[in-house]
Amino acid sequence: MSSKNNKHIKNEDTVDTVHADGSKGTEINREMITADGMRVNHTNENDTINEGDVKNEIYIPHEREDKQAEEREDKQAEEQDEKKVASLAAVWPVIYRWMKPYGLAVAILLIFIAADAVFDWGLAFVQGFFVDAIQDGGQQRLNSTAIIFVAILGGFIVLLAMHRYVLVWLKESMHRDMSMDLLKLLNRMPYAWVRRQKSGDVMLRIKEDTKHGAEVVEAIAEGVTVVFIIALSLGYLYRADAWVAVIALISSAAIWFTARLYDERIVRLSDEVESREGESQQQIQQYVEGIPVIQTYHAAPWFLTRFRTQQQSLNRVQAKLQMMLSMSDNVAMAVFGLAQLAALFLIALSAARGTLSPGMVVASSLLFELVVWPVLGLSSQWSQMQSSVGAFGRISAWLERADKMAEKMDVSKEIQETNIQARGILLNRKSDEALDVATEKVPDQVLDKTLENNLNKTLDAVGDSERYKHEPNNAEKQSPWGALSHEQGIAEQTAYQIKNQESELVMLRLRQVTVSDEESGRTILEQITLNLVPGELVAVVGASGAGKSTLCQVCAGLIEPTTGNVMLHNKEVTQYLAMDSQSTVTYMPQTPTFFTGTMAENIRLGRDVALDKVKLAAEQAGLHEFIEAQEGQYEALMQEKGANLSGGQQQRLSLARLFLRTSDVYILDEPTSSLDVQTEHHVMKHLLTFMKGKIGLLVTHRMEVAQQCPRILVMDQGRIVEDGTHEQLMESKGLYYHMNGKNS
Length: 744
Hints:
This protein is α/β, with parallel strands linked by helices. Strands 10-13-14-7-15-16 form a 6-stranded mixed sheet, with helices on both faces. α3 (103-136) packs parallel to α6 (199-240), α3 packs antiparallel against α11 (358-441) and α6 runs antiparallel to α11 (358-441).
């Protein structure tokens, strides 16, 4: 294979895949190296290879799935979950999940609930006892009994206070746990899913739904208390007058089922109110964040008109909800009034017949109310429980999504492990065949020497930024396998890959990555195949909308490709974000994010790092002098959204975070866009030193920054159209050449 007769040197990688449905497929990835050292990736999807025909191919694990249909199904499932009306039976496992850690508190609460029920029932019983005692004229008995009852009353008051304390503590503990768990869940969910959620809805889930969900504890406690009171009261009424007990029971059932006629509409309207309140909160948030634009563009009338329309819609739904609640209460009160008249009539007849004493008349009247009236309260508690169930239903939908995502990741992991095993078997078998072919045609001393030389070349290339500075018009030097024939070169390449599989695993490998917009179907990235190795900081340039930021997010594992995959350490890069351990990938977004706390805390972001290291990172980012000049220095408080920092200072603080982290891969999206030339030079000097031995991808629109990187990718319309060093790209006079103004 001679450079004089061939414009390109071609390396072929056969890709053996095992898909989720168990089917197998093979692709050929061809990496074309031009004579001047530039690389062009090409995949012929129509090339197929039968396993029995393969003699000299390299099998590389690769997973290619069409995820568009799956994403559409996921989105439809989310929409169905939002429309679905939750039931207590459906969400009880979720409620139990957060109540289970507090089993002892629940058991103690049940004891207090029983004491509460006995107290309410006992008050009616005691009043009847006093009336009979007065009529009997037992003054001494009355005094002694009163003292006993006062002492018992004091004990019950203490128990009721403890009952309230335990109930509030349990409710707030569950509220705290649910909020924490949902925040952890958000951290584990795919970034694309999180980005799809409305910020107002997210706030409602974490703030309001967890609050309403925790209130289910109080609703259940009150409901159990009412049931105890009704049971005790019915027992007394049955002994006094069975008919009164029957009327009380029938009336309670009538009130209960009448109120239930409105439940479904109340729950549906409550969900609609929650949704519209989320939209309202989102609009308020947008208004506060957009004050500079709203003021300078005089956009307040336009925004307030939209907000008024949204609020009017919310008010209409709220009015419907209040009317429905009012109708439910009024109908229940009407049934209660009729039942009470009937019960008093029967009690009066029994008293006239002499079957009830005056004290029993008083007690029966009060206990009838204790049977029927609490049902009204129980109905109210049931409505509150339905609100809590709705909140748990929305929380449960998030949990189900998280479980499905975890299941998908487990399946993906199994597929990858299957591919790895298949690769090992095939490599071992093919290497034996290929080496046999090579040793037949090449003397041992020549093969050994060539293997040694090429091994040294490749190992140097992996850790050396000079990898892409090839000598022009010398294709044999550019290709590690150029000294041998094609057949012998394949054999040598196979042997080398077997010896050096571990070094391959540290690569960040993109294989046929395509990303499409879920809503419009527009292709953002198209068929990106790319290898990033330690020791090189790769610059990415291109026009706005070329896909640079999306490429960063894909490499960082924040966005899952529509097709293709991104592998690091033989795992999908998205799996690292789901791990609780130290992240293997560090991503610096284009827009910095800040948190309440000190300057040092905003640099550390929770890491247990000594202040000296924090200062060193700030020095590398060119921020140390500014922080030292502040009152409190590194303990100076950060204002909301970093308002006390300029745009350049915000970017430097974000860079300090990056310098403080230890990761395998660093993704930087426009890290110097807000810096002056002098600071940019300082940062790039430290960044190039920092990136030695690490994988780096840097998006920039400044050609001066790109020129300092040993490798440059040029993107256009979602594709990598050029790949090489600054000198090579300028010599080729392509898109990069024109971006540099033709004179750099």
